[in-house]
Amino acid sequence: QRRVREAVVSTQSTGEDEDHVLGDYENIEGIVVENSYLEEKTDTLASLAELSIMMGPAFAPFIEESFSYALKMADFSSPPVRKSAMLCLSQTAIALHKLIHKNNYQDESALLPKMLSVSVPHLIEVVKTDKERELVCGALESLNEMLKEIGAEMGGNDAFLDELIEIVKDVLSCSTACQKDEEDDTYSEEVDDESELATVLLDYAASILPTLATAIGGAKFAPYYKMFLPLLLPKNNLCKKNWASGTVAEMIQKTGPAVTPFAETLLNYFLKGMKDSSPDVVSNCVFGIGALAEACGPALAGQYPKFLEVLAPLLKENGDGRTMDNVLGAVARMIKTQPDAVNLSLVLPAFVQWLPLREDMEENVTVYSCLRYLLGAGALNTHLPALVPIFAAELSNRKVGEEGRAELAQIMTAVMTGYPDLMKNFGQDDLAKLQGLLVNNGS
Is the pTM of this model over 0.70? Predict the structure, then answer.
């Protein structure tokens, strides 16, 4: 528990004695005044941030003024105001970047580089020095969003990359100002499972890594695995394992083949994680194995039988839905990456048995793109009678997602053309509905 360091004073106070209002707190670092004036500032900044994104070109005349106001509020005494100011700084910069690159907006005064040269260093400084964890989370989130939308150019030079890497490392190693133990002036090396905000802070920092891999490319990002894997592969802490296993899997996806030198370390981590008592950890590790197989390609093809052996027992009645979906996703990635390394006659019956997906709808694209590939290769013929009703039903399932339904539309178009006998069980109304769905989903 952190010691109380602030006294909160309401402007609605009735003029009581000052000592009574402040109470017996010692070592007060600051006083936060709660009133509607501060709430208006917070709401104004949040609204400007949202409007800058939602209004598009119509907001262009107001971007510079909004950014200037947010910059003025960035060091305000009230933490909620500062947090909204950070959001406004990042969102207005993202909005201007979108206008330039998607709407051919002419940034004649070079406003965007000026905005980035101010906002990015400010956000980095907040992570380094601010004692409020919630504000540091907000700064990390803003940096991540800017990196996703603007890319590595947001920093202007390579020094930015070094600084970004450094603050992520500092957060993950629990050595920033907001992670300092105020009781004994030291830094906590372990995350308290009961401290949700402490865990969220680590998660926000780690989430920057997959984004960074995308922004600078897998080959340039891969050397950083040596720095971050020791920080991301905890042995015992459940909170860390839950988010770290998912983050590492996402990093692998974004890094691609350049992750191959670290394949053995990562594979051992995922295989061990699959024995964990937490379904979330198991599911993330299953996803990680699929991502690793896809990224490393031929380098791991010889391990496919071992992968399939450990994945198969997870497909069972009353099994964890998300884990089972990730098993199917992992198998689909193996088939598409190295089809000759998978014994389809043994794998496909079980694969088909557990369709459609239950919980992890993001894996639909992976699974149905694999089945479309197998259909084109003539490997699905014996399974089509069982699959066609699933395809037809899932085509109208909005949870499948737009890309997943587009894959299904291509599959069903090919089935209706190449296997008309399989459509005899569909009535005229069903066929008409199916045709409408095919048109709506781009086939």
Answer: yes
Task: Give the span between the Cα atoms of 395 and 442, in whole angstroms.
Answer: 12
197 CB-side CA count, 13 A = 12
CB 369 within 8 A of CB 405: no
Tokens 């299904």 label which residue?
A: 408
Residues 123 and 139: beta-carbon distance below 8 Å: yes
Dihedral sign of CA atoms 351, 354, 359, 365 in order: positive
Query: Which stretch of 21-25, 26-30, 97-101, 174-178 has the lowest confidence by average pLDDT?
Result: 21-25
User: Using the 8-state DSSP alphabet, how is residue 421 labeled?
Assistant: G
By DSSP bridging, strand 180-181 and strand 30-34 are: unpaired
Let me know: does 248 contact 232? Beta carbons within 8 Å. yes
Kindly give the pairing relationship between strand 6-10 and strand 30-34. Answer: parallel
As a residue count, the chain comes to 443
Closest CA to 211 of 257, 165, 273: 165
| Each residue's pLDDT tens digit, 311-356 | 999 999 999 999 999 999 999 999 999 999 999 999 999 999 999 9
